[in-house]
Design brief:
By secondary structure, this protein is mainly beta. 4% of the residues lie in helices and 51% in strands.
Length: 243
């Protein structure tokens, strides 16, 4: 853990006013009336880093959060040390949140453990769009254990963890990603498509499952560009520039 970075940022919208606080390496920049971008400075994250973001939206408020560039996760001094980025969002009734960062690339030897926790009041809506890429071009990719936990109206709606590892024969095999380099998800809460559908193309396959409540989960597996294409077609508006 020597040299590990601990950093957290906070953003809130209440009474029509957007306020935020952040410090390197997680820096927030306001890019619109109801929009902020997360700007990573100083490189990384590296193994051992613990990063976080808290979001609070008041009644009827809305916010879109993007990242300025792809996140590149690399191993730290301790090969076993994981890096993490924990997002916690609390939405009051009538609030609306879109969390849609650029793709995250998990390099060879890196261990990545991000999480998203949504506390959504009844009448509020949220959408989480994420894309993970296993390794840079020519790499197998490191290990990623990504968790999403959602409550709606105080009731648990979704609790899931997806584990990926490009160098693991089981997780990268036919029972896992099937050798695909990228995985994407869209979690919708409170609104949006709630039915079940799916499809397959030359470089990507996807499936949407309804939740036991107001929401759905879209899962996408395939090439980097194929996954980005499906996410964009789904209305997420996230296009990958990762090779």
């Amino acid at each position: 853990m020597t040299g590990a970075v601990l950093a957290a940022a906070r953003v809130s919208v209440t009474g029509g006013r957007l306020t935020w606080a952040s410090a390197p390496p997680v820096v927030l920049r306001r890019t619109g009336p109801r929009q902020v971008h997360v700007v990573a400075v100083g490189g990384g994250p590296l193994g051992g880093d613990r990063l976080g973001l808290e979001i609070d939206l008041g009644p009827g408020e809305r916010l879109t959060v993007h990242s300025a560039a792809a996140t590149l996760v690399q191993p730290g001094r301790d090969p076993a040390a994981e890096a993490s980025f924990d997002v916690v969002a609390r939405l009051a009734p009538g609030a609306d949140l879109l969390w849609a960062p650029e793709p995250t690339v998990v390099c060879d030897g890196a261990v990545w453990a991000p999480s998203v926790r949504l506390e959504v009041a009844e009448g509020a809506t949220a959408q989480v769009v994420e894309q993970v890429v296993l390794g840079r071009a020519g790499q197998a990719g490191g290990r990623c254990s990504s968790s999403v936990d959602v409550t709606f109206g105080g009731r648990s709606l979704l609790a899931t963890t997806t584990v990926l590892a490009g160098g693991d024969p089981a997780l990268a095999g036919i029972g896992g990603t099937g050798g695909a380099r990228s995985v994407g998800t869209v979690v919708r809460v409170g609104a949006g498509p709630h039915g079940e559908d799916g499809g397959i193309d030359d470089d990507v396959l996807w499936a949407r499952s309804p939740l036991d409540g107001p929401g759905s989960v879209l899962s996408v597996v395939g090439t980097v560009r194929g996954v980005a294409r499906v996410l964009a077609a789904d209305g997420a508006g996230v296009m990958s520039s990762v090779g």
